[in-house]
Amino acid sequence: MFTSLSIKNYALIDDIHVDFGPGLTIITGETGAGKSILLGALSLILGKRADLSSVKDTSKKCIVEAVFNIENYILNTFFLDNALDYDSETIVRREILPSGKSRAFINDSPVNLDVLTKMGKMLIDVHSQHQNLDLTSNQFQFQVIDALANNQDKIQSYKSKLQKFQLLKKEVSNLNLQKAEAIKEQDYNTFLLNELVEANLVSGELKDLEAEQETLSNVEEIQSTLQESFQLLDGEQLGVLATLNELKQRFKNLSDLSSAYLDVYNRITSLIIELEDVYSEVESAKDNLEADPQKLQTINEKLSVLQNLMLKHSVSTIDELLVKQEDLSNKVILFETIDDQILEIENKLVDHESKLNNLALDISKNRVKTIPLLTQKLHSILIDLGMEFAQFDINLEESEDFLINGKDKLNFLFSANKGIDPKDLKHAVSGGELSRIMLAIKSVLTQYEQLPTIIFDEIDTGVSGEISNKMALIMQEMSLKMQVLAITHLPQIAAKGDSHFKVFKETTKLKTVTHLMKLNKEDRVLEIAEMLGGKETSTSAIAHAKQLLN
Predict the structure, then answer these.
(1) What is the DSSP letter of 259?
(2) Is residue 536 part of a domain?
(3) Is residue 544 part of a domain?
(4) Which of 111, 149, 208, 313 could bridge 115 with an S-S bond, Cβ 3.0-4.6 Å?
């Protein structure tokens, strides 16, 4: 429910705050008093783009704030999806800064206009002669007939299954594309994979192979150097070990004469032990090193294969080649199993298609049953609203495709005059007729679903007498199940309100300001009397006003 509205620094408004209650709220005022300004400010809350020209004082900020009680609306998911804090008393605020920039907030969280617009549609429904085009939209027409047919749960289930069906179709399509690509590349991928498999790749082996190649390529020079080193270490006269052993013996003698030389003796001993270990390794290397042209050729060939593969696949390590090998293996395996995957998903598609068809058929049957009830209700209301020759035909036509809410194509046909065949609604009615049809449809809808607050903006234009009284009764009946605001110039409608506000302008030497005032019982009598007979209210006009109010 729309509980309050505050407007600051907008058009002719300085500062207005108004609280709204349940039931039927009436807003009246002379032409030009500012009723459209109120709706203009409210439209900012509903997501309309801001315009600095609508700001009264461009040196100050313009603020429009509305409070809604949303505990009876199922909006928790909307708040969750948009990362907003849910509160049963929700505050929507719009600000226009002096710079011309606009900001929007829901419960003090900044939001963009798209979120604000979606939220607005769930909270307030504004109808005027120029805003009734929803009636001609297929989406709204389905909403009407499905509300009466109690199709909501079935449609929700249908939409869920349709989404899954479409995902499965997309999956099959993607697999078929992959299969087509795989067919083109299969032979080449298999060839590349076999090349890599035959190379018997081992992570990190490149460095070992290069080291072994280097050794075998220089075996003679290495052998010569090792032999010379062996001679230097163990030559009988000039060998390092023989010289150190002789030095060791001399310092052994010195240490026997004086302990001051014992440390040097021990260090020489350690050197000999270390050098003997070096000697053993040099001897082992010399004895084990042999020229092996065959092995060198094998290593060269393996390195050549690896280098060619790395060049071909634009990589620099064997690990990267192994990754390529795994990727190619997956592609080859995919090709071998893709037909099974496609078949499995196609079987699921057949099952989903069958379930969708059954659901669509149930939805359609409910619609067919509902059409006579809806047309009968609309005919009855439209006759009361002065359209006694109105004809309403609702056509359903089955589609071959799955549509968003079933397999039906829907068309509302209408004729307002006797002897004229019904035509598509958008081509068959005037603005005033469209307003009355929308009122009729909304009055029927209130009996079947929870609707947001509805604002009727002078949809009674061109209506008078008994018809205006019927319109008032319809609005009053609707207000028993939902909040209704009516901006009207008809006293018959104004008198049916549970509360009544008057919009008026006050002009001084310096400025003109629009005000909004809640009327008490006496004020309402005078306001309705003025609506009946003009500014100079007569006794009969006041008596008539009291009669209407009673």
Answers:
(1) G
(2) no
(3) no
(4) 111
pLDDT at 242: 73
Same domain, residue pair 74 and 169 = no
Residues 223 and 182 in one domain: no
- Strand (E) or helix (H) holding 528: helix 521-533
In angstroms, the Cα distances linking 401 to 315, 345, 406 are 50, 20, 9
Among 281, 316, 351, give the residue marking a domain's end: 316
Structural domain contains residue 550: no
Are 388 and 139 within 8 A, CB to CB?
no
Query: Which CATH number fits the domain that encloses residue 124?
Result: 3.40.50.300
434 conformational bin, left if phi > 0, alpha if psi -120 to 50, beta if neither: alpha
* Same domain membership, residue 357 and residue 475: no
Mark whether 486 and 512 lie in a shared domain. Answer: yes
Q: Between the CA of residue 410 and those of 146, 156, 240, 305, what are the distances in Å?
A: 11, 19, 108, 69
Q: From residue 509, how far is each of 55, 316, 359, 513 by CA, in Å?
A: 20, 86, 69, 11
For residue 498, what are the domain limits? 1-129+458-519
State the helix-helix crossing angle for 152-198 and 138-149, rounded to 10 degrees.
120
The CATH number of whichever domain residue 398 belongs to comes to 1.20.1050
Burial class of residue 372 in the structure, from the number of CB atoms within 10 Å of its CB (0-12 exposed, 13-18 middle, 19+ buried): exposed
In a domain, 331, yes or no: no
Express each pLDDT in 494-504 by its tens digit: 999 999 999 99
Which pTM does this prediction carry? 0.68
Q: Going by DSSP bridges, is the β-strand pair 62-69/89-96 parallel, antiparallel, or unpaired? A: antiparallel
The pLDDT value given to residue 216: 60
pLDDT score at 220: 61
Phi and psi for 287 in degrees, rounded to 5? -75, -30
Residue pair 230/241 in contact by the 8 Å Cβ criterion: no
Report percent pLDDT > 90 for the chain.
43
The dihedral sign for the CA sequence 268, 273, 277, 279? positive
Q: How many structural domains does the chain have?
A: 3
Q: Supply 271's token pair.
A: 């050197």
